[in-house]
Amino acid sequence: MCKVVAKFEKGSQLDSVMLLAGVALIIAGFLTLSDTDSWQARDDLWKPISIFGCALVVLNMLLRIFRRKLTVELLTNHTDSITIQPVKNLQFSGWIKQSAIQVNKKSISSIKVNNFYNPSSGAGMYWVCFSFMGGGVVELNIDDIRIVNDILLFSRKYLKDVNLLIGKRVEI
Description:
Elements: E1 3-8, H1 14-31, H2 46-66, E2 70-77, E3 81-84, E4 87-89, E5 95-97, E6 101-104, E7 108-115, E8 126-132, E9 137-142, H3 145-158, E10 163-166
Parallel strand pairs: 7-10
Antiparallel strand pairs: 1-2, 2-3, 3-6, 4-5, 7-8, 8-9
Helix pairs in contact: 1-2
């Protein structure tokens, strides 16, 4: 295993914008039925505006259902370095890639792994943090224990000199 490959639900920066625009259009459509000081109620506008808003919401859902998975090589081993490909979870969407970082193996001081999942709220993820000698960090938030276990196996095999700190709540 010279790579840690993971699959995530693919997201987009436009997902939340489409949802917000759709809901705003639905509300605006129904607001055209109200009389105000500056607006006279119109019965002919609410249907087309609200239908367009509903279409945006349905289109967003369909795009999410039929969108392919995001396959990412989170960690890649090279002779003297590793490549870390961070991913980010967008709220109301899915996962997107961030820019890859190539670091020297000797510059990594520690790898910390913790479980921040809260069973009572159903929120939280596993946290993997690569700390560097110069004080920099690269954080990965992962929602699957199998991926975290692959990262730990990768670290034990290719980063033997790195201090591995595993939290008590992480099931290995």
